[in-house]
Amino acid sequence: MIDQHHIRTYTGIEMNPLAPRPEDIALEDIAQALSLQCRFMGQIPNLYSVAQHSVLVSRIVPREDALWGLLHDAAEAYLGDLPRPLKRHPIMQDYCAAEARVLDCVGQRFGLGPMPASVVVADRIALATEIRELWGQEALIREGLDVEPLSLARENEPLCSRVARRLFLSRFRELVK
């Protein structure tokens, strides 16, 4: 009998995201789900996917940390994406614990050690860049991030989910070859 808390993934895996196992983690499931999840809970003009954000983070960090950069939000493929203000609220401690368990399994599945500090910094840099590009410099100042956004010009235009998925998978292959 299937656990009542299971989800069925894109590849057909039956997994319980509240009790994850490394063998339940599949790259294709991560790429599919993240390419369809919009950053900022979709409160933006166009789809800007978590997959595209993850590729950006993987390009900001040093090469040796790039795979963690790409996979840093992989738990969201199984738990959904919550914006920072919600995630940081004390009532969300259980969600954060579940996220940590899934990320631990992701690390085990792909043979990664602990998430490097460079990924946390790169995630904030990507966030600052996205805020500035979406809402402008004033919104970035209000957010109070302690990092400088990148100067991307038009390199980070929102991609449709199919293209973001392919980009994510291509970046993974590039990093593991």
Tell me what you see in this structure.
This protein is an all-alpha fold and 177 residues long. 53% of the residues lie in helices and 2% in strands. The protein has a single domain (7-176), classed as Orthogonal Bundle (Hypothetical protein af1432), CATH 1.10.3210. The chain contains nine helices and two strands. The protein has a two-stranded antiparallel sheet with strand order 1-2. A hairpin with a 5-residue loop joins strand 1 and strand 2 (14-15). It is globular. The relative contact order is 0.17.
Annotate the secondary structure layout.
Blueprint: E1 7-8, E2 14-15, H1 27-36, H2 50-60, H3 66-71, H4 76-79, H5 84-87, H6 93-109, H7 117-135, H8 137-143, H9 161-176
Antiparallel strand pairs: 1-2
Helix pairs in contact: 1-9, 2-7, 2-9, 7-8
Q: Write the CATH fold name.
A: Hypothetical protein af1432
Question: Low-confidence segments, ≥5 residues, pLDDT <50?
Answer: none
Give the DSSP E fraction (strand runs of 2 or more residues): under 5%
Intertermini distance: 39 Å
Estimated radius of gyration: 16 Å
Summarize the structure.
The chain is mainly alpha-helical and 177 residues long.
Q: Keywords for this structure?
A:
single chain; 177 residues; mainly alpha; Hypothetical protein af1432; two-stranded antiparallel ribbon; 9 helices; 2 strands; globular
